[in-house]
Design goal:
heterodimer, A: alpha/beta, Rossmann fold, four-stranded parallel sheet, 4 helices, 4 strands, 36% helix, B: alpha/beta, five-stranded parallel sheet, 14 helices, 9 strands, globular
């Protein structure tokens, strides 16, 4: 590849910590690569593994899941759920040939703008090294047009 | 007046769906009384040319079981779609890929290598099937394998979906009765795209076992838990049971006799990705917060991809492993 590969990364952030960390990084003018598209959730516990699958199937090269540090969840313990889902999801994705490095879990409090920016920078480089994922666009390969509505005449 | 025409076809499947149709007992006689069976390779002799010669839309009802694995499957899917008024994806293979869909975890080359060149087969002459083969009399062809298995709806437009591996016979009988009532003007067809012959909830909803708060500290294979508590939720006893994400309709047949649900009725209503839903539900009830401890508990599920996508891989968001499609 002659041009440098720019990975597309979808980042799921928690409203109470990592989203604010990203905000803080912005107001403090901390630089990080623009490859991450952040999606705000109310909690990392809202992170349905379906979101990650959909991101990867839809063209993302990697996914970043972020949440409050263990013990600091706004909803008591939902970030532990996120941790368990992440670990099980990573094993499942491995069976589909997706490298462990493409999906990452990061804890970042609202005060850790610099830490989040560093983690994003690191992940972008790691995924750049892994190369594009290029999951097939199955739906675009659909070979048929819908049939008109049914009318049964006996 | 001539009777409406009925067809049933099998593609990449095991034949269990046909057995399930025969298991409807005397309802099968209603099929014969109300329909003219024009094409059903497993039950009667008919040639593809006979189907090709039929008028478009001349078959009222086609039950299609099996996934689309070969060029032949694909050709027949298009052909029967053209000839049929109502095309039903019948059974798990047609609706979601089922066990044949698990081959989407391997490349076609690996599948052939395993099937023809390992201990799985006695093959002293090292025969390897070719789509085209020259013999003195001319050229022989067999249908080529497609790179991945597809569900029927991924290839042609489907009117109704009937899940199950195989669909339960009482559900098949109910669907046949419904179609007959529609023909007699006593009932209306469900909206196009509907899932028929199944419930809208989950297997857990139909399961009679007692459920408390789940705190799972270890996963076991079912044969390692002896004896299984006959009253208590199977997942609660640490055996991976796919009930929470699986569509109802079977009356929780497996859990009621002491076996875990393996998910043959496919995703419940509103589930976009079956495996992801199971990951969510299993991970939620693991009783651990330390990564090392969580990993130890997860070691109890030795093949998570197979556990979560046993029936649904070909219809999941990702559909196939990189081995199947990456050059």
């Amino acid at each position: 590849m002659s041009e440098k590969f720019e990975p597309t990364i979808i980042g799921f952030t928690c409203n109470w910590c990592s989203y604010r960390a990203a905000d803080l990084a912005g107001t403090a003018r901390v630089k990080y690569p623009p490859n991450v598209r952040l999606v705000r959730l109310m909690c990392s516990g809202r992170m349905d593994p379906t979101f990650v699958m959909k991101a990867l199937a839809g063209g993302a090269d990697g996914v970043m899941i972020t949440g409050c540090h263990p013990g600091e969840c706004h909803y008591i313990d939902q970030n532990y759920k996120a941790l368990r889902r992440f670990l099980l999801l990573r094993r499942t994705l491995a069976g589909l040939g997706i490298e462990a490095g493409r999906v990452k879990l990061v804890w970042a409090s609202a005060a850790e703008g610099v830490h989040l920016a560093e983690e994003i920078t690191k992940l972008v480089e790691e995924i750049r090294a892994l190369g594009p994922l290029n999951w097939p666009k199955w739906d675009e390969q659909a070979e048929h047009q819908p049939e008109p509505a049914l009318e049964v005449a006996a | 007046m001539s009777k409406p025409k009925f067809a049933m076809y099998w593609a990449a499947s095991c034949g269990g769906c046909e057995i399930a149709v025969l298991n409807t007992h005397e309802t099968i006689l209603d099929v014969d009384a109300n329909f003219d069976v024009v094409f059903w390779p497993v039950a009667m002799d008919a040639k593809y040319q006979d189907v090709e010669a039929m008028e478009d839309k001349s078959i009222l009802l086609t039950l299609w079981n099996g996934g689309i694995r070969t060029e032949e499957n694909e050709h027949l899917a298009h052909l029967l779609r053209r000839k049929s008024q109502i095309l039903v994806a019948f059974g798990s293979c047609a609706t979601e890929g089922c066990i044949p869909g698990l081959a989407n975890l391997s490349s076609v080359d690996d599948i052939f290598a395993t099937a023809y060149h390992t201990v799985s087969t006695v093959n002293p002459d090292n025969i390897h099937p070719q789509p085209v083969f020259r013999v003195p009399e001319g050229e022989l062809t067999i249908p080529a394998m497609k790179p991945v298995l597809k569900t029927l709806a991924q290839v042609v437009d489907v009117d109704y979906y009937m899940p199950g591996c195989p669909p339960e016979s009482h559900q098949i009988a109910a669907v046949i009765n419904l179609v007959i009532q529609v023909l007699q003007g006593k009932a209306e067809l469900p909206p196009k795209g509907a899932v028929i012959g199944a419930g809208n909830s989950t297997v857990c909803d139909e399961c009679k076992r007692k459920r408390d708060v789940k705190h799972i500290t270890a996963f076991h294979r079912i044969q390692e838990v002896a004896p299984l508590d006959p009253e208590l939720c199977i997942l609660e006893q640490g055996v991976p049971c796919n009930g929470p994400a699986t569509r109802s309709g079977c009356n929780a047949r497996c859990p009621s006799v002491g076996a875990q649900c393996i998910g043959c009725y496919g995703p419940a209503e509103g589930v976009l990705d079956y495996g992801a839903r199971l990951i969510t539900s299993f991970a939620s009830v693991i009783d651990a917060t330390e990564p090392a401890e969580i990993e130890r508990i997860l070691d109890g599920i030795p093949d998570p991809t197979g556990q979560f996508y046993r029936f649904n891989l070909a219809d999941s968001l990702l559909r196939a492993s990189t081995k199947a499609w990456k050059k």
